[in-house]
Amino acid sequence: MKSTFRTLFYLRKNQPRRDGTAPIMVKVTVNGKSVQFNSKVNIHPTNWDSRVGKAIGRSKEVMDSNASLDKLRVAILKSYDKQLEEYGYVIPEKIRNQVLGLEKGAKTLIEFIDLHNEQYANRIGINTTRTTFVRYQLMKQRVQDFLKLKYNLSDIPLRDLTPVVLENFYLYLRKECNCENNSSMKTMQRLRKIVYFAKNMGEAMADPFQSFRVHFESVDREVLTEEEIHMIYHKEFISGRLEQVRDIFIFSCFTGLSYIDMANLTDEDIKEAFDGNLWIMTKRQKTNVNSNIRLLDIPKAILEKYKGKQKNGKCLPVVSNQKMNEYLKEIATICGITKTVTCHVARHSFATSIALSNGVPIESVSKMLGHTSIRTTQIYAKITDRKISQDMDMLAQKMNRRQSQ
Questions:
Q1: Phi, psi of 260 (to 5 degrees)
Q2: In 318-405, which ranges are continuous DSSP H helix?
Q3: In the chain, pLDDT over 70 holds for what percent of residues?
Q4: Left, alpha or beta for 205 (phi > 0: left; psi -120 to 50: alpha)?
Q5: pLDDT tens sequence across 263-296
Q6: Sign (positive/negative) of CA torsion 241, 243, 244, 245?
Q7: Cα(75)–Cα(99) distance, integer angstroms
């Protein structure tokens, strides 16, 4: 559909100057959206023809005013043509900024991303992780690739990040990068943080995310049943590497520790508590929130198996996350489990099959997982058929007792 474009010059008579003149205003309209600004040309109302949008008369003042307006018309048209050629769409605000010289020296989108990421890198090890930093770097690469593919640009002014551009970027992530909705939305969230970062630095701009809704779809997260967990635990492996990975996975299934928290677990984190039992007492690296988990017999046996065999006081022989997930696929195949088994499945399985299904309240599970909100725990938790059956058995017993009274 062809873009509709109109430029209108009109006199603001209700704001006369002391010398009797009034400012000539400009209204630029593109596809129904308009922007108004002062042309910086003033004329006496008697010398203005509203029908043609020009000053009338033969005085030098009139001639100079019309020359300035003609120059402005040409600049507006050039800005319109340039935007249409480069982007395929036109933003009235950008026309105004270009003809008034407001974009000179304005920082670009990639410049703000670099500023943010440079600052973020300094927080690694303090209140964030390298993994999260790498995701911001990936977001930057995605943005650059998108701009090149969609608009044949290496960068754009931050003010050009409009809702239309955001929508196109989201579609690029889904189609060209083969990202699922939730993964794409995580990238959009990181880009939104760049916009807020720029605004906090004093950048004056409309928030493009006011018209772009970040929405996550409910995902049916994979979990193992208690029977599948015990099947893996009791399986004998000829390979030592598979045995070690199995032990780490099972340890997570019975403690709910994430991969990074298991990798960082040291002897100092294992303490005897007030009840005489051994507990893991640590802080989650991701959120720096306390996570206290009582050790059951199976994780205690795994700790004892590797005690004193690791470097730097670490408790477990944790390999890279990528290797862990590769070996877990192999373990699942050997055990006849068709589910996709990863490190994070162990954490979900702890919340669902080990804790909630055996009657542990969700408040306690949330505390052990180190969550700051039970809403986060609810994402992990899946009420199993077994738990529903147990709850209904209890209800049936109560109802039977009442009827027999």
A1: -65, -35
A2: 321-334, 343-349, 362-369, 374-380, 385-404
A3: 94
A4: beta
A5: 989 989 999 888 889 999 988 877 677 888 999 9
A6: positive
A7: 6
